[in-house]
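We now fix the convention by which a protein and its fold are recorded. These numbers are not coordinates but entries in a learned vocabulary of local backbone shapes. A record is reproduced here so that you can trace the correspondence yourselves:
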Amino acid sequence: MRPYLLLYIAALLLLASCRGEQQECLRSVYYWRTSLTTDSAQQAFIGRHRIGRMYTRFFDVVMDGQGRGALPNATLRFSGSVPSGVEVVPVVYIVNDCMVQPDTALPRKLLRRVVQMCETHGLERPRELQIDCDWTRRTRTAYFAFLDTLRRQAAAEGIQLSATIRLHQLAQPVPPVDRGVLMVYNTGDATRIDVEKPILDLRDVQPYLSRLAGYGLPLAAAYPVFRWQLLFRGGRFVDFLNGSDDPPILPTDTIVTRQPQLADILAVKQAVDAARRQPFNEIIIYDLNPFSIQRFTDNDYEAIFCP
């Protein structure tokens, strides 16, 4: 056999081997509402983009104002079914104040409530539970102890534990969980009217990227496709507008809309990917709602999801 033919065959085998080693990136969405229902447009979006997971907020944990400790709040109402073939990952948001005086019984109560909600509403037993908390140095010790206990209890029931990782938390020790989701959004100060890109700005993300390569936890990455409407009065921030329980709007008030553009998302994604030693095996968009899925074209979303 001629030498050049041998080289050609070897090159083909090497290329096939490299392709075989590549893992398709899992495509996922967050669902952050108080009522679980997906309309035909959302279900079509899930199908077109081969969404495999839906990280679904089940309830919040907040401090009760009457001294009863940490209690569940804003529990999800199940108004419809989950699209077929999509894994539901329950997410529980814990207000950081709950970790100032932690309840040692909270891990068991939280886990039991999540499992019961799945059973009651006909969902498959969760394979993963995710905790979302904007913990700080002040609450780190208590929060990590909470996670450590919850992880052991969840593992005994065959459930993995994950946690959200905010950019500023990359400088802190790694939490005791099985995996994390890097929340690549909410990078600026939304309460300042002069900050035009509070949801996502490459300039705000770049200072944290040096911590990413050596971060000792398997990570997925979540990117924003949502918008904020912000109310300012006399140049001062008043509130987020969401259509329910909005404050009265005066004729002299200013309402500004903040939303990341596709160029912002792709530029940040490229920078984050370059800072990571290995590509992310899961990309998540935040979040699945009728407005978000209409913001960009299908090709735009493919660019966000593709590694």
